[in-house]
Amino acid sequence: MLSWFTMLSRVSDFKHHWSDVLAGHLMGLAFAVLVWLIDLFVTLVSLNDSCDFDARALRA
């Protein structure tokens, strides 16, 4: 929410053009989603590696 209010204040104070602010916001959002996905992937891989589950035991 803080980034949204910062966007609005920059445009309403005529410090930046709305398209520049929107582009910066979208780039920041894309970077945040990318970092979140990488962190999620690393967490899932580490959980899978530490699991003692053996799928072959289910077939027997």
From TrEMBL:
The keyword Transmembrane helix applies. The keyword Membrane applies. Gene3D superfamilies: Phosphatidic acid phosphatase type 2/haloperoxidase (1.20.144.10). Residues 2-38 form the Phosphatidic acid phosphatase type 2/haloperoxidase domain. The chain crosses the membrane at residues 21-38. Keywords: Membrane, Transmembrane, Transmembrane helix. This is Phosphatidic acid phosphatase type 2/haloperoxidase domain-containing protein.
